[in-house]
């Protein structure tokens, strides 16, 4: 029978003969000729011989040896394993600023899974959720990450060969700070701005020397808690840049120089101190004229969160209003078909870069697994083609982070395996890997999570989201092409109700198994509610904003409203399984428009 090793090694040779006995001697040799982080493991009659390149290689060799010894008797044979990674740095970034700040227990479980999947870097993406001294009004109600949390978490990471890297956005996504009068003067624009018909609150720092000094103070405090000599300063999605404080300079010099000069100001104290500074490349690659000025010691990270196949499907259906919204935010819908076009300007300039795909779980409730797999493979292919040092899987939490941690585990395992060896793990059995994580003797949880993650694949394609969440986010009023048909919804509901039954059959032996089941069950309940809301179309409106008739009657809206209230109450309990209480109120508030719309419709009122 086939041996089950995770990740699948790039070279495994069955040499014949019996596996070594439990008491067989182990010979360990340091071999600097092996690739970095690599090892060679001879597991054969009478002995185990382990050769390693460095400390990381020794760790991964031991991990493989443990897995070989754990194989059932009928899968025990003599083998030689030779292995090393495609990407030297294999990172995971968790958004802890979109309301869900994980408990220490959830973080400890995450680190275990990252170690299994051979990640060697972890970043916690922060905007307002680190307890900076003297800035209590920003994080007071967020149950923030504290210096004590970082010290504890770094210990968990270092024990497993993972580097904990500071991550603080220092340019865009500052709305949580700028919502306070104390910090609003630091904004590029102190007044809300209109983008594609939507009003956005101030979110971008003005690119001034004073602001660079201010964020340097924050970074000094944050990095002072960690041993790593790396730092991620963010700098993505600077929506208002060049429209307020920096408008005159941007008109005179161009937006690219304004952006990069500020990034340089923020990065310079750290690069001069020997740090490597990461920053997001979306603004940079839109201005290729300044790529040759990228500061030494910094690394641009190219991000993209939809697979090329998914984006082609989205673009084929995209309405003019959707295109207008994308263009207003600096994104051409015809030029976001994958990592290759996103990275082309950097490739042309010979500039090294990292790739950053996503778990595809945010704005989804239960994940978008097929899209995540395609996105991760695309990132790995482009990264390996251009000898990228780093691969950073991202898990964002847009609009309240309603997807619970277990939904992310499949993409985490797949991305870890693929960034270790793309060729060997392209066809990884994700369900089997998940069963290993949960130690599910019934063999239910792994396939269940895979099936849930694939529900979105059989619904209308939506950019960076699933219709199941979008119908909640937009209070039922979607683009006409985003509504699934009756057959699609029937199929989706069948999978979802089947998942509830499978959860009853699951028998996970992992310590977090019962908690994971409770979190997954709540996510499935949300998805069933969303499917029923889509089917009812009680909130569908026409171009004039009037309810489409015959949409569902007010009685149907009342029933959905009652169900929503129950789900919101249950969400408060499910949230606290793995998240701190601070962000719960803000997370629930994202669904206030839906609550109000259903109440209005149930009273037969129109907008």
UniProtKB/TrEMBL annotation:
Residues 1-26 are annotated as: Disordered. GO terms for biological process: carbohydrate metabolic process; ganglioside catabolic process; glycosaminoglycan metabolic process. The keyword Hydrolase applies. Keywords: Glycosidase, Hydrolase. Gene3D superfamilies: Chitobiase/beta-hexosaminidase domain 2-like (3.30.379.10), Glycosidases (3.20.20.80). This is Glycosyl hydrolase family 20. Residues 28-84 form the Beta-hexosaminidase bacterial type N-terminal domain. GO terms for molecular function: beta-N-acetylhexosaminidase activity. It holds the Pfam family Glyco_hydro_20b. GO terms for cellular component: lysosome; membrane.
């Amino acid at each position: 029978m086939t041996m089950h090793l995770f990740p699948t090694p790039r070279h495994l040779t069955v040499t014949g003969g019996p596996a070594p006995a439990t008491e067989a001697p182990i010979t360990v040799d340091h071999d600097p000729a092996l690739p970095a982080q690599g090892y060679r493991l001879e597991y054969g009659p009478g002995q185990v011989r382990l050769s390693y390149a460095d400390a990381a290689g020794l760790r991964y060799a031991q991990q493989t040896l443990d897995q070989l010894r754990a194989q059932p008797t009928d899968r025990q044979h003599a083998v030689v394993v030779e292995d090393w990674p495609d990407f030297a740095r294999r990172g995971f970034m968790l958004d802890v600023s979109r309301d869900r700040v994980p408990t220490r227990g959830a973080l400890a479980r995450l680190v275990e899974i990252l170690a299994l999947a051979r990640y060697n870097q972890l970043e916690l993406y922060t905007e307002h959720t680190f307890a900076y001294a003297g800035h209590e009004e920003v994080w007071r109600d967020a149950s923030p990450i504290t210096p004590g949390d970082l010290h504890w978490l770094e210990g968990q990471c270092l024990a497993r060969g993972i580097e904990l890297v500071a991550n603080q956005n220092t340019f865009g996504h500052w709305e949580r700070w700028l919502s306070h009068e104390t910090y609003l003067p630091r904004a590029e624009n102190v007044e809300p701005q209109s983008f594609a018909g939507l009003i956005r609150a101030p979110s971008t720092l003005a690119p001034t020397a004073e602001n660079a000094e201010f964020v340097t103070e924050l970074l000094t405090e944050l990095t002072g808690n960690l041993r790593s000599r790396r730092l991620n300063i963010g700098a993505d999605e600077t929506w208002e840049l060049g429209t307020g404080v920096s408008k005159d300079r941007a008109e005179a010099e161009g937006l690219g120089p304004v952006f990069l000069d500020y990034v340089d100001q923020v990065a310079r104290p750290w690069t001069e101190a020997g740090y490597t500074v990461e920053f997001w490349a979306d603004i940079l690659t839109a201005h290729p004229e300044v790529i040759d000025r990228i500061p030494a010691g910094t690394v641009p990270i190219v991000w993209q969160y939809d697979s090329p196949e998914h984006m082609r499907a989205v673009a084929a259906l995209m309405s003019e209003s959707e295109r207008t919204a994308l263009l207003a935010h600096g994104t051409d819908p015809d030029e976001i078909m994958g990592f290759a076009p996103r990275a082309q300007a950097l490739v042309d300039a010979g500039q090294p870069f990292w790739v950053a795909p996503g778990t595809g779980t945010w704005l989804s409730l239960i994940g978008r697994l097929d899209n995540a797999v395609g996105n991760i493979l695309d990132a790995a292919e482009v990264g390996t083609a251009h000898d990228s040092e780093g691969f950073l899987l991202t898990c964002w939490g847009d609009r309240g982070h309603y997807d619970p941690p277990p939904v992310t585990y499949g993409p985490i395992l797949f991305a870890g395996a693929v960034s270790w060896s793309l060729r060997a793990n392209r066809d990884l059995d994700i369900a089997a890997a998940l069963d290993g994580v949960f130690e599910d003797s019934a063999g239910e949880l792994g396939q269940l999570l895979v099936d849930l993650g694939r529900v979105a694949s059989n619904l209308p394609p939506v950019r960076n989201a699933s219709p199941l969440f979008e119908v909640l986010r937009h209070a039922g009023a979607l683009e006409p092409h985003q509504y699934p048909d009756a057959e699609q919804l029937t199929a989706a509901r069948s999978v979802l109700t089947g998942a509830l039954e499978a959860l009853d059959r699951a028998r996970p032996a992992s310590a977090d198994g019962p908690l994971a089941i409770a979190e997954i069950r709540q996510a499935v309940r949300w998805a069933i509610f969303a499917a029923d809301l889509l089917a009812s179309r009680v909130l569908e409106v026409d171009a004039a904003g009037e309810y489409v008739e015959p949409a569902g009657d007010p009685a149907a809206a009342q029933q959905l409203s009652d169900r929503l209230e129950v789900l919101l109450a249950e969400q408060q309990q499910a949230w606290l399984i793995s998240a701190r209480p601070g962000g719960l109120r803000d997370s629930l508030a994202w669904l206030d428009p839906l609550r109000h719309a259903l109440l209005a419709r149930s009273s037969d009122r129109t907008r």
